[in-house]
Automatic annotation (TrEMBL):
Domain Protein kinase: from-to ranges: 72-394
Superkingdom of origin organism: Eukaryota
Biased composition (Basic residues): 1-15
Organism: Helicotheca tamesis
Cross-referenced PROSITE patterns: PROTEIN_KINASE_DOM
UniProt-recorded name of the protein: Protein kinase domain-containing protein
């Protein structure tokens, strides 16, 4: 356990963290104050209305305190998404008018006291609310997104899932609604860049394919491999927890995996999560759910084509993410949306595993991203495989790859230029129709010469 913890960032001495579950933004919210339930149903946003059947999880979920906007003093913006903006919370100044019961008063007082670290001044919490500049259609989607996320986070409790500490005292379908979450200091996307730099600095001198790298820092490379596998393992444990609750996540990608200031992995952004119900099941035990949901780069083919699917779409996303953690490169770099549809969805193209990687790693990736949804493993198997690989690395029994053919200090300029032009389109959230529909069609045709990776 000590060896595992050392792979994350060094813990700093501080008062203990709050136990799990125990102001107005800079821009005024949109004048639209409420999205009716009837409107949501008519427009197909049933996810926001789907609060699921009462379960043991929901029944035992602890009560969360509520806050009013005037009680929250916001700091700088630390994140922006397609629909939401995230501000740090500098201070919570409670007002008696918002107290509704003795229990609520106690919960609110405890939250306010734990808002900031007294020794370091570090803000422990952030406030997430809708962006005020959303167009009409995106605004409605954003309301749904945040309401769905709040619904799930209120009932979930896992060491690798972000914790919700409080909510707004307004209705979840109102524009002013907000949630208070634990603060994260970085994302996996940022971590991948840092890992790449560290690996590049530790590889030594390249003497060609026959000799490979010389004077490499093997102990550092070994530590980095272990750290990366631990992150993959923690992500898979969180997804397994969700699947055991009959929840499909549908948006697994580096931007939705974060780290707190202790280096602990947390997945966040549950706007696309969905609880599976028997009423949606088809004859082949799949589910009739919304298609084209998530980010194309990590989206399973059956989701992109609008076919029925189940929890195993998360296995596909994890396979792509696992390859990215190992390769420290962007999957499908340089692909346009048209290329992705033709090659990845249509012809089954996948990222190429490095031949130096252990066969068990490659097999796990290929099993996860199999075109046949029924051939993909469940996350109990994924977790078992990763635990075994980590155990081997901890005991120096596993083969640590040289990464000679995949990790380089510099990328080809042509590949980088193509990625800047069109590759980022695969990262656009498909819920944000204005960004997807306003793309330049000519750009989609400019990448036929892009490398297949």
């Amino acid at each position: 356990a000590k060896q595992r913890r050392c792979m994350h960032q060094r813990r700093r001495a501080r008062p203990p963290r709050p136990a799990a579950r125990p102001n107005t933004p800079s821009n005024e919210p949109r004048p639209i104050s409420f999205v009716s339930e009837t409107y949501l149903l008519e427009e197909g946003y049933s996810d926001a209305m789907d609060y699921g059947n009462a379960s043991d999880n929901q029944a035992s979920a602890p009560t969360l305190p509520t806050l009013g906007f005037p009680e929250v003093e916001l700091g700088r913006v630390i994140g922006r998404g397609g629909f939401s903006v995230v501000n740090e919370i500098r201070e919570i100044n409670l007002q008696e008018v918002y107290d509704t019961s003795i229990e609520e008063t106690s919960l609110r007082a405890e939250l306010a006291q734990q808002c900031c670290d007294e020794e370091t001044g570090f803000s422990r919490y952030v406030l997430k609310t809708l962006r005020p500049d959303l167009p009409e259609e995106e605004h409605t989607k954003g309301v749904v997104d945040l309401a769905v996320e709040a619904r799930f986070l209120a009932t979930l409790s896992h060491p690798h899932i972000i914790a919700m500490r409080a909510t707004s005292n307004s209705d979840p379908l109102e524009s002013k609604y907000f949630v208070v979450l634990d603060r994260l200091v970085s994302t996996l996307e940022e971590k991948l860049i840092l890992w790449r730099k560290e690996v590049g600095a530790s590889m030594g001198v390249w003497f060609g394919p026959c000799v490979g790298y010389c004077c490499s820092k093997r102990h550092v490379l070994h530590k980095l491999w272990l750290e990366r596998l631990l992150v993959a393992r923690d992500v898979s444990s969180a997804v397994l927890y969700l699947h055991n609750q009959d929840i499909v996540y549908r948006d697994l990608k580096p931007d939705n995996v974060g780290f707190n200031d202790d280096g602990e992995v947390k997945i966040f952004d549950f706007g696309l999560a969905k609880r599976l119900h028997p009423d949606d099941k088809t004859a082949n035990d799949l589910y009739l759910l919304t298609g084209n949901t998530g980010s194309l780069r990590y989206m399973a083919p059956e989701v992109a084509t609008g076919h029925a699917y189940d929890k195993r779409v998360d296995a596909y996303s994890f396979g792509i993410l696992y390859w990215q953690i190992c390769a420290l490169a962007t999957p499908y770099a340089g692909y346009s949306m048209k290329m992705h549809a033709d090659l990845v969805v249509g012809k089954g193209y996948r990222p190429k595993p490095d031949p130096s990687w252990p066969l068990s790693w490659t097999k796990l990736m290929k099993d996860c991203w199999a075109s046949d949804i029924f051939a993909r493993p469940d996350f109990a198997h994924v977790l078992q495989v990763l635990d075994s690989e980590i155990e081997d690395l901890l005991h120096d029994e596993g083969v640590v790859p040289s990464r000679a053919s995949e990790i380089r200090a510099k990328k080809r300029k042509s590949q980088r230029a193509k990625a800047e032009k069109v590759g980022q389109r695969l990262d656009v959230d498909t819920r944000i129709s204005s960004l997807v529909n306003n793309g330049n069609d000519s750009a989609l045709e400019m990448t036929k010469e892009a490398d297949i990776v």
